[in-house]
Write a structure and sequence with these properties.
Blueprint lengths: L13 E5 L3 H13 L3 E5 L2 H10 L4 E5 L7 H15 L5 E5 L4 H10 L3 E4 L4 H10 L5
Parallel strand pairs: 1-2, 1-3, 3-4, 4-5
Helix pairs in contact: 2-3
Length: 135
């Protein structure tokens, strides 16, 4: 029987990242590559919604403050789509607003978790493990 190291991750599919800032997109892409996680990256919530409805993902990471459609608006459309078509995808808010009031808004809006910027790669991995996106 093969044993895995504690730091070994098994990824179940691919994730969608919606982030408007180039530096943050680059960082998230680097983290995903380091963890051997396949991902698609878009720069606004409307693009995220369209990708979500035409592809299969294990999780979404949505920046809260994006042009065209922000993360809260995108999540509202995604949850409506799910209510009409079935299913539930874990969605993680990626934000610099991590105060208690903001976190409450994210959870009440339907986010499954949040990641506070700046973050470390292990923090993203921990959330993905908790949501059973990676093993």
């Amino acid at each position: 029987m093969e044993s895995k190291s504690e730091n070994s991750l098994t990824f179940l599919s691919k994730i969608l990242v919606a982030e408007d800032e180039l530096i943050n997109r680059t960082l998230l892409l680097s983290i995903c590559k380091a963890f051997e996680i396949e991902c698609d990256i878009v720069s606004d919530g409307l693009q995220a919604y369209h990708k979500f409805t035409t592809n299969t993902y294990s999780a979404l990471l949505l920046d809260i403050e994006m042009p065209v459609m922000n993360g809260l608006e995108a999540l509202e459309k995604i949850r409506l789509y799910e209510s009409e078509h079935g299913g539930h995808i874990p969605v993680i808010a990626v934000t610099s607003h991590s105060d208690k009031a903001s976190r409450e808004v994210y959870f009440k809006s339907g986010f499954d978790d949040y990641l506070s910027k700046p973050f470390k790669p292990f923090e993203l991995a921990a959330i993905l493990k908790k949501l059973k996106v990676i093993l």
